[in-house]
Amino acid sequence: MEPDRYSYSPILGRPRWSLPGGARVALWIVPNVEHYEYLPDMQRERDPWPRTPHPDVLGYSLRDYGNRVGFWRMFDMFDRLGIRSTVSLNLAVYEHYPEIMAAIETRGWDVMCHGLYNTCYHWGMAEADERAEIAACVDLFRRLTGRMLPGWFSPGVSNTLSTPDLIAEAGIGYSADFYHDDQPTPLRVRGGQELVSVPYTMDLNDAVLYRYDTEGAEFARMIRDHFETVWREGETQPRVMCVALHPYIMGHAHRIRHLERALGDILARDGVWLTSGAEIVQWYRGHGLAEYRAYLGSQA
């Protein structure tokens, strides 16, 4: 079965998408700030900790380093570079670690929900259960911050066939669960709500690359190479560039300097709009979505 969430559209044939200030690249930096349960329940489709018997002290403690040390090292780097991030957040982090919540909220970072825990997958959930899980996230965030969740990225990349419908139903405006484009695109959902896909990345993602022994210097080279390509292409058709990070990986002392140099080089260039997921969606809705839909209609 082919997905029926979005229409095919070659990027070069679309109406030109204009960015603020004539920028070529909309850059959003996405640190994934996560919490992994020490003794999680078996999750239908997958055991959260493959090393058994539990507890998996190795897996848990490596990730716990991110919240205890790596996050704060990464925070210092972002402050030096003047980066306001979009945090991909397991919302339980705000309850477990009030210091992290204070640091994120004080800086006014954008928050994209990454579920409650990164060991609580949505695969195999009944639709009613997934709806309740999403509602719990919306309610928790509103209780803690007084705001509505703007975006969604399923925990552990465990989206279901119903996830886009359910997050749109809950009032969430954008999804990072699809990786099919270099520009935002509208997603089809039932119920008449509007949901936009914002380009997230599994290619410039330290957690994915680390599995293939990609170290800090190589990751930084990939970031620069990716930027050079989309910056050149962005002269005629602007692109979104996402850099996905995890404090328990790039927050280590021997990697952070490579990341800082790469991001500093990019931010020194002209034509870069350093932005957030919510800002990308807001801009796209006012400067591109209607034109794209009209173009799709003309191609039918």
Structural description of this entry:
- The chain has 300 residues and is an alpha/beta fold.
- It has one domain (11-299): TIM Barrel (Alpha-Beta Barrel), CATH 3.20.20.370.
- It has 10 helices and 9 strands.
- Strands 1, 2, 3, 4, 5, 6, 7, 8 and 9 form a 9-stranded mixed sheet that branches.
- β4, α5 and β5 form a beta-alpha-beta unit.
- The longest helix has 25 residues, at 57-81.
- The radius of gyration is 19 Å and the shape is globular.
- The two termini are 21 Å apart.
Can I get a quick summary?
The chain is built from ten helices and nine strands. It has 300 residues and is α/β, with parallel strands linked by helices. The two termini are 21 Å apart.
Global geometry? globular
Strands, count: 9
The second-level CATH architecture is Alpha-Beta Barrel
- How much helical structure, as a percent, in the residues? 40-55%
What can be said about the biggest beta sheet?
9 strands, mixed
SS strand fraction: 5-15%
Question: What is the total domain count?
Answer: 1
Summarize the helix and strand pattern as letters.
EHEHHEHEHEEEHHEHEHH
Count of alpha and pi helical runs:
10
Overall pLDDT level = 93
Index terms:
TIM Barrel; alpha/beta
Element layout with pairings:
Layout: E1 25-33, H1 57-81, E2 86-89, H2 92-96, H3 98-107, E3 110-113, H4 127-145, E4 151-152, H5 163-169, E5 174-175, E6 185-187, E7 195-197, H6 206-210, H7 216-233, E8 239-245, H8 253-267, E9 272-274, H9 277-286, H10 289-299
Helix pairs in contact: 1-8, 7-8
